[in-house]
Amino acid sequence: MLSIIKKSGYLCKKFHDMLEKIQALLAEIDTLEAHSAEDIEALRIKYLSKKGSIPALMADFRNVPAEQKKEVGIKINELKTKAFDKINSLKAAFDSTDTDADDIDITRTAYPIELGTRHPLTIVRNEIVDIFSRLGFSLAEGPEVEDDWHVFGAMNFADDHPARDMQDTFFIEAKPDVILRTHTSSVQSRVMEHTQPPIRIICPGRVYRNEAISARAHCFFHQVEGLYVDEDVSFTDLKQVLLLFAREMFGEGTQIRLRPSYFPFTEPSAEMDISCNICGGEGCSFCKYTGWVEILGCGMVDPAVLELNGIDSKKYKGYAFGMGVERITNLKYQVKDLRMFSENDTRFLKEFEAAN
Ligand code: PHE
Predict the structure, then answer these.
(1) Alpha carbon distance 264, 261 (integer Å)
(2) How far is CA 250 from the centre of its chain?
(3) Based on the structure, what is the number of domains in the chain?
(4) Which pLDDT tens digit goes with each residue over 114-156?
(5) pLDDT in tens, 34-84
(6) Pocket perturbation via mutation, ligand 1, pick of 183, 222, 269 by most ligand atoms within 8 A of CB
């Protein structure tokens, strides 16, 4: 009996000693400082290494009476975590001040940041739209996946017109009426069907034709369409607007000429050439030694088109024109191969950085 009391007395004392030790260590750890990596390592050895004071306490833990184990256990864990955290934070603070300021070359340029640039076709498209905006045209857009009516029917294409042929048009297999638009003229119809004149729009967009891909042709390309419908619109107005456009786009000295042509939706129709801006009209391989290059199709809106789209052709007249953005870009930047525009070769695209 006596020995048991003695024993538990001893254990109680042990328990108090331990708690006191833990308390003292907790306070001590708060005050730790280090001035070098060696200091930190010495602290680690003192408190946390196998022979350190904290593992020694833990070894003693088994002598703590069962009813006090929980309380002491919690305290020891607190101490261990605190010692770890303290030593780690000393390490972190020391690491961050460990850089020799002389090692940093503040004159060195930063890593180059790769900036994207606008695509050449976008640059030219924006320029075309900008010129016509200044002439009072507003932007209109329409869907690339279209129906036969807006691409052909409303544009006065006869039912058996060859342009509806599989050769030119991409059809959506399951729905023969749904096609990829072959020209931006479909936007004329999209606007006219819900707007009464005056209408003055410029419509940029991508178009698709079933053509073999080569340096001179692609199965998709870009057009900009223009339409003006109002009372008393004349062919002279059309010619003047196109002359202004050509001079803004290609320079003051640019000449234009109109040659008679045919489109189902314009009457009369014309194709417009500009004096070759590569050789200045002297003759070169680009203009096939004629001094002229074709840039767009145009004409007076056929009265049948106005009627098909709900506009009174006795009251209103209109003109329309359409041009290929690739063609204009080729002329401005002499891109010889159309495929360059869709290959995403950054060496090519970077050449237009300055034009952005
Ligand atoms: N839609 C014609 C084409 O794709 C261009 C054009 C538009 C011609 C408007 C006349 C008027 O070739």
Answers:
(1) 10
(2) 29
(3) 2
(4) 778 899 999 999 999 999 999 999 999 999 999 999 999 999 9
(5) 888 888 889 889 998 888 888 888 888 888 888 888 888 888 899 889 999
(6) 183
- Where do runs of H (alpha helix) occur along the chain? 2-30, 37-47, 53-60, 66-96, 120-134, 148-151, 185-192, 235-250, 303-308, 325-333, 346-349
Are 326 and 332 spatial neighbours (Cβ–Cβ below 8 Å)? no
Q: Clarify whether residues 195 and 276 are in a common domain.
A: yes
Shortest-distance atom of ligand 1 to CA 227: 9
* Listed residue (228, 311, 304, 227) closest to 267, CA to CA: 304
Atom of ligand 1 nearest to the CA of 323: 5
**Does residue 11 lie in a domain region?**
yes
Which tens digits make up the pLDDT trace of 81-109? 999 998 888 888 877 665 566 677 888 77
Q: Report percent pLDDT > 90 for the chain.
A: 51
Pocket of ligand 1, beta carbon within 6 A: 183, 185, 225, 263, 266, 297-299, 320-322
Q: Is residue 272 part of a domain?
A: yes
Distance 325 CA to ligand 1 centre (A): 13
> Which residues on adjacent β-strands are paired with residue 207?
221
Q: 244 and 338 share a domain? A: yes
Q: What pTM was estimated for this model as a whole?
A: 0.69
CA-closest residue to ligand 1 atom 5: 322
Tell me whether residue 220 is in a domain.
yes
pLDDT digits (tens, 9 = 90+) for 248-298: 999 999 999 999 999 999 999 999 999 998 888 888 888 899 999 999 999
Segments forming the whole domain that contains residue 184: 120-355
